[in-house]
């Protein structure tokens, strides 16, 4: 299951959304490197490096330390990164109670919010 939020209104984001939807429809593969392997001290530069290298999406691995043992980024990081890129931000949420975070990620600028069905009631 995926809860989707609309892409940001910028022209570049609209183009990224169109490419993403074409890819999702099976017309082309989607290149979506994980931001988890980035240098977090310069996330904006890392995001641009991935886009310049041909990424279609930026994959954001969100972990809460409860559903999975690791803790990573959250909606505030997505919001900060959104100020620097119009890229399609694919937020893969490995969190307990994923429904309570949809609005936060949507407001932060996430393009897509996916979660694990077993994390829901």
Automatic annotation (TrEMBL):
InterPro entries: Aldolase_TIM, Ribul_P_3_epim-like, RibuloseP-bd_barrel. It catalyses: D-ribulose 5-phosphate = D-xylulose 5-phosphate. Keywords: Carbohydrate metabolism, Iron, Isomerase, Manganese, Metal-binding, Zinc. GO terms for biological process: carbohydrate derivative metabolic process; carbohydrate metabolic process; generation of precursor metabolites and energy; nicotinamide nucleotide metabolic process; purine nucleotide metabolic process. The keyword Metal-binding applies. Its cofactor is Fe(2+); Zn(2+); Mn(2+). Pfam families: Ribul_P_3_epim. Coiled coil: none annotated. One of its GO terms (molecular function) is metal ion binding. PROSITE patterns: RIBUL_P_3_EPIMER_1 (PS01085). Its EC number is 5.1.3.1. Homodimer. PANTHER family: RIBULOSE-5-PHOSPHATE-3-EPIMERASE. Catalyzes the reversible epimerization of D-ribulose 5-phosphate to D-xylulose 5-phosphate. Belongs to the ribulose-phosphate 3-epimerase family. This is ribulose-phosphate 3-epimerase. The lineage of its organism: Eukaryota, Sar, Stramenopiles, Bigyra, Opalozoa.
């Amino acid at each position: 299951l995926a809860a989707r939020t609309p892409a940001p209104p910028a022209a570049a984001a609209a183009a990224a959304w169109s490419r993403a939807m074409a890819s999702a429809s099976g017309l082309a593969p989607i290149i979506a490197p994980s931001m988890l392997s980035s240098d977090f001290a310069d996330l904006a530069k890392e995001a641009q490096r991935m886009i310049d290298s041909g990424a279609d999406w930026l994959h954001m691995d969100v972990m809460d330390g409860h559903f999975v043992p690791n803790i990573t980024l959250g909606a505030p990081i997505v919001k900060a990164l959104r100020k620097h890129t119009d890229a399609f931000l694919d937020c893969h949420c490995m969190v307990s109670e994923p429904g309570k975070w949809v609005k936060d990620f949507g407001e932060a600028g996430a393009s897509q919010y996916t979660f694990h069905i077993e994390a829901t009631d």
